[in-house]
């Protein structure tokens, strides 16, 4: 007795069927086809597109991957690799890439938390510079591995004030400035925006050392336009949730394929 043909091969969907299944406009489905986010689509004799379960699976993954802001270019690119593998009908590869994506998010979270821990140690005094002579901007640039322009930009954006020599107005960085710069550099490298760092430093300069982790992650009411990096910790938590949902979806597609083929 022969088995029933797989629905992946025999059942066809219209553009409106796919759009309704995931809650998007039909034009969105058409764009995804044009952008290569769905596999190539056959045409029926009447010219209409004939989508299959394969397209619907990819569309559900597309909506998950493309929903919401991304915490940085590398994480966005990592997520899109999962789509590319699914479009090629390599769902085993998509599952592996989903786990790689989750590992990348975990690494970003570890770096973000390590930067906050350095900040907290610095506030307590254990991360402060001791001794040393006053340094000019070129010496600080070499010491910290950041360019003159970056140092000037941090100062221009209010992250620190640098004393000047009276006779020539050259910047002179002492232990306090260098300690502060180390914290700023690590927070910036860990993904926090300059706005988030400034928000935290302004509170710290007022003598309030409470809840600095929360302050870094909470835009103020006057920051009515903000990026993912302005609330970096929360964004990474949301991205971890999305990565786990990508794994669950990919696993369910693989299982459905196995069930369909008996």
Automatic annotation (TrEMBL):
The keyword Transcription applies. It comes from the Bacteria. It comes from Leptolinea tardivitalis. It holds the Pfam family MerR_1. Gene3D superfamilies: 1.10.1660.10. InterPro entries: DNA-bd_dom_put_sf, MerR-type_HTH_dom, MerR_fam. This is HTH merR-type domain-containing protein. GO terms for molecular function: DNA binding; DNA-binding transcription factor activity. SMART domains: HTH_MERR (SM00422). The keyword Iron does not apply. Keywords: DNA-binding, Transcription, Transcription regulation. Residues 12-60, 134-203 form the HTH merR-type domain.
